[in-house]
Amino acid sequence: MRQNLPVLTAALFVIGAGAAKAADHIVIPVPKGSSVITTKVKYTCDTMKDLEATYINAPPIALATVSFKDEYLVMVNVLAGSGARYAGDRFVWWTKGNTGSLYDLTKGENAPPIASCTQD
């Protein structure tokens, strides 16, 4: 049996004002008994003004929304040697401790991050 998480829906998938006239949302069912922990973090980056990430954990589900410049991404946690690595669209957001690196996969497999960030 699964339960719907309207709080997760509101926190995760409301597209910013101006992007849509009505709020868009999606409901993700999680296993019964899972609790949702949401953490919003702001980062200062070397190549852009700032980046905001919201981490949504409802084991075994781990998601992040990442917004920077004009981008809004919903990313899923993927295998990482250390830290937490999230992938969505052409981007990878990789965090360890209070730092994060944003990669654009179209730049090549061994390309440096397009932004190196530190948690505010």
Automatic annotation (TrEMBL):
Keyword terms of this UniProt record: Lipoprotein, Membrane, Palmitate, Signal
SUPFAM superfamilies: YdhA-like (SSF141488)
Residues making up the signal peptide according to the UniProt record: 1-22
All copies of domain C-type lysozyme inhibitor, residue ranges: 43-108
Keyword Chaperone tagged: no
Pfam families the UniProt entry points to: MliC (PF09864)
InterPro entries: MliC, MliC_sf
Entry protein name: MliC family protein
